[in-house]
Input
Amino acid sequence: MFTLETFTLDVTDLTDARAFYEKAFGLTDQISLREGPGTGSGRPFTVSLVVSQPSTVDSLLETALAAGATTLKPAEKSLWGYGAILQAPDGSIWKLATSAKKDRGPATREIDDIVLLLGVADVKASKRFYAERGLGVKRSFGGKYAEFDSAPGAVQLAIYPRRALEKETGVAVDPAAAYGIVLNGGSEEFTDPDGFTWQAKGHATHDR
Output
């Protein structure tokens, strides 16, 4: 069995991207960056930062916007909790979310989980592909969503219909654009049915 360890984002300017992620979310070691072509809007994935309460969502949203992010959906309550969606200067889309609807204490900057959500053409087919490669399925809801097992402290991986991802973010996927992301984990390099590239654990090519 293997799990997703981390991921690498393509950015046009490493210095600016490092500064953004540190100022916006305090992320320094959780993601890797490299110079590459996959920038701009239309990438078929989102990254979620899951936190404990609404005030933490607001705090992260405030610093992200101050650092140069753009709001796609403002912070608001929903049936599942409270959250916001924004776009980083490199074009990647980030979701800030909590299942809590009320604060239980002072705002913190603590991030409980990082979830990489891939937009795929067929959830059942992609789930089967990953299961056959040894990635354990944690939970699944037919063709609507699937989440895979993750190692403690690692990035969590989930898949979602691409059209549903577009509807949620309000950004159409550009099929002609480079994905701008490499997933790191497992023992060999491969490309999944939707075009997402994996590099073997410990062999990721990046600049941070």
